[in-house]
Amino acid sequence: MTASERKTHYAVTQGGSPLGRYQDVIVGQRSILFLLYFEFCLWLTPLPGLLGLVLRKIFWPRLFAQCGKGTVFGQRITLRHPNRISLGSHVIIGDDVTLDARSNSKRPSLQIEDRVTLADHCILTSKDGSITIGSDVGIGTSTLIQATSGCSVAIGKDSVIGPQCYVAGGANYDASDPSQLIRTQPIRQDGGCELGQNVWLGAKVCVLDEARIGAGSIVAAGSVVISAIPPLSVCGGIPAKVIKSREG
C-alpha cells in the first residue's frame, strides 16, 4: 500500500487509543466538545422529511469551517473532517453524499462555492489533496471527485458534470519499478486536473491527472480526458480528442 494508505491504515487500526483514532480519522480534531456536537449531528443524519431537513439546517452549519446561508442537507450524508470543508450559500447536498476532507492542513481542503448542487450518491474526497468547486456547478448522481497526495481538482463556475463521472487528481501510481508491487509505489505528482468555466461533461466521463479542459468545452459521454482540451471545443473518445470547435 502507498504511504498515504499506510498512514490511514495505521491511524484506523493502531495509532493510539480508539477514541483518539476516531477523532483523527473521522472527526478531524481532538476537541471533546466538538466530538460531542459531531455525534449529536450524526443522530440527525437519517431523519426523513421536513423535520430532518429543518434540524440539519439548524445544527449542521456549525460543523464546517464555513457554511453559507440556505444550504440544504439531505439524508444519510457521510462527513469526514467537516472542519476542513467550506460551503457557500444555497448549496444543495443530496441524499447519501460523502464529503471527506481528511488532511493535516489547517485550511479547508474541500471548498464548494455558492449555489452548487451535489446529486444523490456523490463522493467528494480530498485526502491530503484539495478540491475547489466554483459557483453554480451541478454535479450528477454517483459522481466521484477525488484529490490525493498533494494533487488538486478545480472545477470552474457554471459547469455541468453528468452522472457517474470520475474526476481525479492523484489517480496514477508511479509504477516505474517492476520489482515492486504497484500498490506499494507512490502516487505520481502530475499536477491534478482542472475544468474551466462553463464546461459540460456527459455521463461516465473520466478526467484524470494533467487534464486541462478549456472554458466552454463539451466532453462526450464515456470519454477519458488525459490532456489539454482547448476552450470552446467538443471532444470525445478514449483518450478524448477534439471533434470540432464551438467557435464561429
Structural notes for this entry:
With 248 residues, the protein is an alpha/beta fold. The chain has a single domain (19-245), classed as UDP N-Acetylglucosamine Acyltransferase, domain 1 (3 Solenoid), CATH 2.160.10. It contains four helices and 24 strands. The strands form three sheets. A nine-stranded mixed beta sheet has the order 2-5-8-11-14-17-20-23-24. Strands 1-4-7-10-13-16-19-22 form an eight-stranded parallel beta sheet, with no helix packed on it. Strands 3-6-9-12-15-18-21 form a seven-stranded parallel beta sheet. Strand 23 and strand 24 form a beta hairpin. It starts with a helix and ends with a strand. 37% of the residues are buried.
Order of helices and strands: HHHHEEEEEEEEEEEEEEEEEEEEEEEE
Q: Share of helix among residues?
A: 10-25%
Sheet with the most strands: spatial strand order: 2-5-8-11-14-17-20-23-24
Question: Using DSSP, what is the number of strands?
Answer: 24
What fold name goes in the CATH topology slot?
Answer: UDP N-Acetylglucosamine Acyltransferase, domain 1
Question: What fraction of the residues are assigned to beta strands by DSSP?
Answer: 25-35%
Low-confidence stretches: none
Q: Architecture, CATH level 2? A: 3 Solenoid
